[in-house]
Amino acid sequence: MDLNQWDIKSFANMMSDAVFIMGVDQEERFVYAFINNTCKKRFGYTEDIIGKTIEEGANPEMVDYLNHRYQEVLKTGETVIYSDTVHGRIDETKLDPVRNSAGDITHIIAVTRNITTIENQRQALLRSNQRYQSLFDYNKSGIFELDKNGRFISLNPSGTMILGMDEKEMMQNSFHSIVCMEDLPQVSEMFQRSLDGETVDYQTAIIDANGDRKRLDVTHVPMIVDYEVVGVYGIARDITSEHRQKKQIEDLANQDQLTGMPNRSAMKRKLKEKLRSHQKDGYVAVLVLDVDDFKLINDSVGHDQGDELILELSKRLDQAFSKRFDIGRIGGDEFMMIGHPKSRGDLTDISGILDHLFSEPFHIENRNYYLKSSCGITVVNGHNHQRIPEDVMKQAEMAMYSSKKRGRGLTTFYDESMNEASRRMLFLEQELQLILQERGLFVHYQPILDARTGQIKSFEALVRWHHRQEGAISPSEFIPVAEESGLIHQVGEFVLDESLSMLTKWRKAGHQDIRISINISVKQLEDRSLLTMIQQKLDHYGLLPHDIELEITETVVMENIDKVRHTLDLLQDKGIYLSIDDFGTGYSSMSSLNRLPFHTIKIDRSFITDVMYVSKSRAILRSMIQLASEMGMTTIAEGVETKEQFDILRTEGVSEVQGFYFTKPVTACEAEEKWLKNPENSRVTMGVKQGKDSV
Ligand code: C2E
Ligand code: MG
Ligand code: MG
What are the residue boundaries of the GGDEF domain, all occurrences included (predicted)? Predict the structure, then answer.
């Protein structure tokens, strides 16, 4: 070594470690001592230790190592390292022997380093590792580490149980190798996503090391070190029995117990899927098959044999059709088949196959039974609007009933004419179109009265249609048709024209405060030109916006709230009163009304009818009235039919009333005759039958 003594000493003095170079003679007295500055400061040694024994000169804190460790170094001739904790400070001391040329140990160099911080960090790390380790060791879920190729690196004890493999088997396997084939694509995809940094959950089937099939719920978490994914953690829960139970329950819910075929709800779901997946291409065919007179057979042979017959039939159907159709049992003696034919022509053989299938007798308990069935078929394609499974099933059922009507053992294809309802709608639509051209609709008026004074506040305009053959057709029937066909705009305009012209007339006669309430369909509200149309009519008749009130039914408003809110706001801004009709029949709350621009709520007739008998109705009624008044809204009770109802409504504080108890809707002439002759007396006598009970 080239460095001279001074260099080494001054270098040693600059060190933050305590350095003590000692030479001791036979009697264990210090004959040499180099003590660096740190050692002096930390342990209080000075060079006057020379000549003293270890016991005499040793710092009490250091006596131990100076005595024992010193001996150890001398005895073994090896370096000794140990650590000591004094007053919370952790020191690590290293004792190195120094030999002379003869190989004898002449000195010992002791270097003491304060390792408190490092040691504390190390301990913290150790404890943290232990904490994580216990999460790993004692977790009920199987936890395993996989490398980037999916090979196992480690597996916790639960994992060993779940996967049924020991450490040796584990090291030879990858996770993918135990996954069931059908799930492999999914598992590979999930593993890759996790390698790309995503945490993923999925379920998969595996075959464990004992050959048992298990179902696992797996989470893959990317293992990230220095910002890089180095592998994937797997957390697996064994859900085999849960899954089995769930499947059993599902099977019970979806399976017909007798035949093992899908039941009605399962078939409906299948149909829904088919309708969706074949939306663009090809056809979906639904066949419904009902055994003719099965009830008679069942009653005569008994239920057990009846079941046998159905079971036998299900087997024959399965044999004949399972390649082309999904087959289910949707009722006692009713089967349904769903297929995906290329064309309607593909189904022409059905009738023949069924004939053949039923031509053989059903042989149960040594007896032969001859059965027949009626079949209905409907075919829908991508261009067909019928996308609702229930509707499609209904078509097939209608066709089946038509087969039954025509005789036994027949097959009928559904056609539009079978649908009574749609035929009726078409009829109404055509007739309505005609009557609108002829201006043959008319309007009746029903007064809405102040509940205290009987004063007429408004007349509700109710459209009427008298059909030449059918007589009166209710608006409840034709308004939906008008909405569906788009004729509602003309109906609406007609009612507006008619009722505003009446109002103008009544205004001229001096009835300044009476308003007109007009029912507006949500379809009209969706029409952008509604506002302009109303304004034009008001201008034309010289009326003001607050002369009219528009009634909109609660359910339709709430179902279409996003579409109509803007128009409602604009109408209110104009100064037109808005009322919510048939309130209480929908699912809105009073608080949802708060956010909408309604001035009035018309409490639905059902509450008024029930109020005498159902105590809850009265409570609801009371809170509706109270809340509405707190919100500054007017309440109208519609459909008041009796004095008793009226009395309750008055007690509960309803603002206005309307109903047959006061008067049915009447023609404009009758209204004029009854109430509008004299401007001072536009009130309805309340409770004529009770004589003096008028208000
Ligand atoms: P709505 O707006 O709730 O009208 C009240 C209905 O209850 C009317 O039936 C009325 O005649 C009837 N009514 C009034 N008081 C009583 C009573 O005390 N007891 C009973 N049982 N019924 C009573 P209507 O005229 O058959 O109208 C039925 C629905 O058709 C109306 O319900 C309304 O939603 C709709 N409607 C009527 N006219 C029009 C219209 O011009 N345009 C639109 N969009 N819808 C209309
Ligand atoms: Mg109404
Ligand atoms: Mg109503």
Answer: 282-416
